[in-house]
Amino acid sequence: MILKLYSYSNKQLKLAQLWNLKSSKILQILLVGQCTIRGQLALRFDNLPEVPLSEVEPAKNIVKRFSTGAASFGSLSKEAHETFALAMNRVGGLSNSGEGGEDPDRYIPEPSGDSKCSAIKQIASGRFGVTIDYIASARVLQIKMAQGAKPGEGGELPGWKVTEKIAEIRYSIPGVGLISPPPHHDIYSIEDLSQLIFDLKHANPHAIVSVKLVSEVGVGVVAVGVAKGKANYITISGHDGGTGAARWTGIKHAGCPWELGIAETHQTLLLNGLREKIILETDGQIRTGLDVVKAFLLGADRIAMTTAPLISVGCIMMRKCHLNTCPVGIATQDPELRKKFEGTPENVINYLFLIAESVRNYMSKLGFRTVEEMVGKSNFLTQIKKMENPKH
Fold first, then answer.
1. pLDDT at 149
2. Which of 1, 143, 331, 389 gets the most CB atoms within 10 Å of its CB?
3. Distances in Å between the alpha carbon of 206 and those of 124, 140, 209, 313, 371?
4. H or E element: which one contains 165?
5. Alpha helices, DSSP H only, in 1-119?
6. What local confidence, expressed as pLDDT, does residue 18 receive?
């Protein structure tokens, strides 16, 4: 059905129908190249001379700029959630707990040195599982103001996914659906947000405070207010992110592309002299090294990814996350289905290093030695002018 949505040459159609390695690349071009803003942008390799790959920042440093998205324990199985935490802690990245709390047993490092403790602890309006121990175990405390895939809607965990363990961690009752109210009930003004940031910094002086905003027109002005409220970290969430539990109408018809949000936020913070005070992150179906490079050039310091790491541990995109029937044991609490989970931290780590090496190759050709040098250098992007695209 995807192939019928867009008009392209007969040669491309025949190749796509073969469904082999070459056709998957064509589909990538069609689905990203013709359907996203970043797909309309090409890299400019003529601004700086190419540098040797050996002089480019190593992959082990680049992967530290990666985070996993906020998928809660409840939306994901125990095994999948802990696999993400183990992988990100091993490479020095950040895993995100989501808004569902975390088992306190995970705060204690294992004898091997591994840790299942998520570095980013999210605090949403429902306050599910938010305790002082939860806050104290965080390296980053993230206030979830909005979510890109469903702006204006709160997070929702259906009752049939609320097991006794989930209910215990979230301080609820098994079988009862859990919904975070759409407006963050702690925050009705920038002063309220500033107060919550202040409280969190006092609850855990060693953690930095992040605020998750949705990509939309005017988000740059909102981000300036967040920065003035003493946040250290801002995540701009694109409209096409989110789990299979997000409503299809929200994914398709709400929010804006992350490319617009991150560019506006970066530029607005610069104009107000606040850019150096803030770590900027973006998310929303970022899957390839080229996507990551374009995000850096538009102003992001860090990248959050969820869908692609989930695929690396076995997700087959059934979109059954909300039904508790995930056949590969990732987005289910069913004990029998959870036994089918075969993912390992090494799967995620291999994927992250694959992306980092791809980024290094682009950096070498662009003339950058470090990611820090390329952040916000939008002059290294140019519009692709395609006559066959009716929008041009």
1. 59
2. 331
3. 20, 9, 10, 32, 26
4. helix 164-170
5. 10-18, 21-28, 59-62, 78-91
6. 47
Other CB atoms within 10 Å distance of the CB of residue 1: 4
pLDDT along the chain (392 residues), means of 10: 43 47 59 81 93 96 94 92 96 93 94 94 88 96 78 73 93 89 74 93 96 91 95 91 60 81 96 96 92 97 94 88 90 93 95 96 96 96 76 58
CB atoms within 10 A of CB 58: 11
Tell me which residue has tokens 């998310």: 283
Residue that the structure tokens 């803003």 belong to: 37
Strand 208-214, strand 140-144: pairing: parallel
Q: Which two tokens stand for residue 345?
A: 């931290």
N-terminal to C-terminal alpha carbon distance within the chain: 25
Helix (H/G/I), strand (E/B), else coil: 289: helix
CA-closest candidate to residue 246, choices 157, 129, 316, 184: 157
Return contacts of 314-322, CB within 8 angstroms, 24+ apart: 314/341, 314/342, 314/343, 314/347, 317/244, 318/244, 319/244, 320/244, 321/75, 321/243, 321/244, 321/245, 322/156, 322/158, 322/161, 322/244, 322/245
What distance in Å separates the CA atoms of residue 344 and residue 341, rounded to the nearest whole number? 9
What are the tokens at 128? 């599910």
Cα distances (angstroms) measured from residue 197 to each of 69, 100, 186, 230: 21, 20, 11, 7
Tell me the C-alpha distance between 348 and 275, whole Å: 31
Per-residue pLDDT, 39: 87
β-bridge partners, 42? 382
CA distance 209 to 342: 34
| pTM of the predicted model as reported, rounded to 2 decimal places | 0.89
Closest CA to 29 of 44, 52, 9: 9
H-run or E-run covering 209: strand 208-214
Q: For position 15, what pLDDT does the model report? A: 46
